[in-house]
Amino acid sequence: MPWNDQFERMPVEEMEKFQLEKLKNTVDWVSKKIPFYKKTFKEAGIKASDIKSLEDVAKLPFTQKNDLRDNYPFGLCAVPLKDVVRVHASSGTTGKPVTGPYTADDLDQWTECMVRNLWSAGVRPEHVVQNAYGHGLFTGGFGFHQGATKLGCTVVPTSSGLTERQITIMKDFGVEVLFATPSYALTIAERAEELKVDLKSLPLKIVVCGAEPWTIQMRDEIEERMGVKAMEAYGLTELGGPGVAFDCEAQDGLHINEDYYLAEIVDPITFEPLPIGEKGELIFTSLQRKAMPMIRYRTKDITRLRREKCSCGRTLLKLEKVYGRTDDMLIISGVNVFPSQIESLLLEVEEVEPQYRLVVRKKGYLDQLLVQVEAKKEIYDAGDKKRLEVEGKIMAHIRGNMGISVEVSLVEPKFIARSEGKALRVVDERPKQFR
Ligand code: DLL
Fold first, then answer.
1. For residue 65, how far is its CA from the centre of ligand 1 (angstroms)?
2. pLDDT, tens only, 314-336
3. Distance, CA 42 to ligand 1 centroid (Å)?
4. Which residue of 4, 137, 250, 261 has the fewest CB atoms within a 10 Å radius of its CB?
């Protein structure tokens, strides 16, 4: 049974009616309150009253990360700051941070989305949960905290880092659920193995992962090493954080909280809307947020939507596991390559650890990819001949599956820095003008 039966199992037609009503309100709200939208709507020749069907959303202009940066910090805020009760922000590694202001009601909406997410992952009020997402400007820590608190769980806000202490707390407090990025979950699993703590013998049974792309192979790895079900949360700062979409016991795609978010897929080059089922860039319009609503926000995440009857009973539209971000897409020998494709192939090779890095270099005019992956200790110790053999095997595996030639370097165990949050998978060593 879902947390919110009314919305999570709403018949599609009824949901679409609900969405249209909310879309009209949102478009009307932003065109009155936010000068940026006033201007872009005018330029596009569109008024709130032109929205008569859900398809009309395609008439609205996109919002992009740069628009948020240009209006930093509160230029896109529709309410006075006295009505803002919280501000989060994205890390801003590639420019000014992006801010996410919330009214009290926006926070309640977020909490509702997170409760649905956690409930669907199997989290229950009686559980002791350890929240290893960063608590601070990042939305992960607070989003999960709010959801689990509302659910009535016993919440342990460890935040990220201090991995040994995470493991001690997990043991001492009888933690049953862990919230962490997939790469940090793996870091915890590895450290526990080093400390000879058998996670499988602890009460831990669920990990809720998100905040970065991860493959099904990575999910299997986490489930196997930790003896857990690894469930998923998807979201982004611009839309209020995690809880935008979540998976269910079917573990086959993420249900979108459709009463709060309207999803579209567009062609990542022409930006034309694509029909359900086609792969492209994911676009979201928030439907109920008041402080900083988003109109057709370009997430840069590549995935596809699926409208289908789910075995869990939810009618909510699904998005497939995100393949990656357009930002992280590499073009190697003319082939589009997402790090996740390499990840799934590496995880099929038994001689290596699930720790890797992709280094992009320029050779003449061509991009070259060096895949650095950690060897299992016994393989590394077996010497050069064995290492060469495994490198050759991985190169052939990648060529056979993706049709691209890459260089593979088997590196020693622990060579790759361990993640405590979002893993850094791609190192771009190309001269700036070629990126
Ligand atoms: O990562 C929010 C979040 C926190 C989601 C905790 C889930 C759990 P940002 O830092 O703004 O927000 O990064 C958003 O992270 O556009 C995706 O590229 C990526 N991302 C988030 N969740 C997933 C996921 C948070 N489940 C960006 N799978 C998004 C793949 C994800 N990528």
1. 14
2. 999 999 999 999 988 898 888 99
3. 32
4. 250
